[in-house]
Write a structure and sequence with these properties.
Oligomer: single chain
Structural class: alpha/beta
Number of helices: 11
Shape: globular
Strand content: 25-35%
Order of helices and strands: EEEHEEEHEEEHHEHEHEHEHEHEHEHE
CATH class of the largest domain: Alpha Beta
Radius of gyration: 20 Å
Distance between the termini: 17 Å
CATH topology of the largest domain: Quinone Oxidoreductase, Chain A, domain 1
Number of strands: 17
Helix content: 10-25%
């Protein structure tokens, strides 16, 4: 099936209207008409090959919300008309230890990304959610139970939501825990919302005084201006867990020194240039840890969506037509969005 999409033919070319071919619906497949697709910073990195290895044409998009339009003969979990989502993965080997444990994001043989991943179908790599529809293996399709009027704001949960939820759950954020969230952007604003909903005492770190009230409005109990050494020093050795969402190179010691003994700081942003080497003494003398986390498995992503539906949690979004994607990328690079762009995929009909 040929559908309209937006993609780029080279790293130095803008995203433009293109026609792409979606595979026929197989026995275990679900066909989805895409209503909304979130815009992730990794979309920009990939389409401009800033991480290298991008295959072209590149059609980004891995924060997908839509409705089922067809199912394969062996599909029982979904029916036509269901509201569903697709995140960062559309397949994995399904037979390694991580896959067996429901941790497909750590598949020993490499999960298949929603776009730019290897596939036997034309053009030889996956094409993402900046398109009218998509066909996905049923095991990688998620049920969405939020009300219809919230669906655009649900889309970023498929990446920004699970990227922050998974480490918060893994390190047991909850009542009695002091949790820091570094950075109040697309990821960080979800981290604040989720940690607050889990019952933790949430402290937001930002470099900008102008974001103080925003962070409080999102659910933070306290806000620290990280450039203020006195504010930082006042919280030394007091955090159980810090979720660091900043994807720019910075001094990690400023935050590890705030951890309690046995505390952990988890990184979820990949900087263009490496962080300065941390002070090992800070870690050794407090048995502190610096860790990392990658999105979440399918079961945990479903858990996150159900948790957010129960708690009424969505992302803070700005809707754009597909035709404004290049200007959205420019604004995203300047952090000029609160807090996530979401594409109205119905506008692709005008391409």
């Amino acid at each position: 099936m040929v559908v309209k999409a937006y993609g780029a033919y080279a790293a130095d070319k803008p995203l433009e209207p293109i026609d792409i071919e979606r595979r026929a619906v197989g026995a275990q497949d679900v066909q989805i008409a895409i209503a909304y697709c979130g815009v992730c910073h990794s979309d920009l990195h990939q389409v401009r090959s800033e991480w290298g290895g991008t295959r072209y044409p590149c059609v980004p998009g891995h924060e997908i919300v839509g409705h089922v339009t067809a199912i394969g003969s062996e599909v029982s979990r979904f029916k036509v008309g269901d509201t569903v989502g697709v995140g960062c993965m559309v397949d994995s080997c399904q037979h390694c230890s991580p896959c067996d444990e429901g941790l497909e994001q750590y598949c020993a043989n490499g999960f298949v990304a929603t776009y730019n991943g290897p596939t036997q179908h034309a053009p030889g790599h996956t094409l993402g959610g900046y398109a009218q529809s998509i066909v996905v293996r049923d095991k990688f399709v998620l049920k969405i139970s939020h009300p219809a009027e919230q669906l655009a704001a649900v889309a970023p949960l498929l990446c920004a939501g699970i990227t922050t939820y998974s480490p918060l759950r893994h390190w047991n954020a909850g009542p009695g825990k002091k949790v820091g969230i570094v950075g109040i952007g697309g990821l960080g604003h979800m981290g604040v919302k989720l940690a607050s909903a889990m019952g933790a005492h949430v402290v937001a770190f930002t470099t900008s005084e102008s974001k103080r009230q925003d962070a409080l409005d999102l659910g933070a109990d306290e806000v620290i201006i990280s450039r203020d050494s006195a504010q930082m020093a006042a919280h030394a050795n007091s955090f159980d867990f810090i979720l660091n969402t900043v994807a720019a190179s910075h001094n990690l010691d400023a935050f590890t020194s705030l951890l309690k003994r046995d505390g952990t700081m988890c990184l979820v942003g990949v900087p263009e240039h490496p962080h300065p080497s941390p002070n090992v003494g800070v870690l050794i003398f407090g048995r502190k840890s610096i860790a990392g986390s990658l999105i979440g498995g399918i079961a945990e992503t479903q858990e996150m969506l159900d948790f957010c539906a129960e708690k009424g949690i969505t992302a803070e979004v700005e809707m754009i037509p597909m035709q404004d994607i290049e200007s959205a990328y420019d604004r995203m690079q300047k952090s000029d969005v609160k807090y996530r762009f979401v594409i109205d995929n119905a506008t692709l009909a005008n391409s």
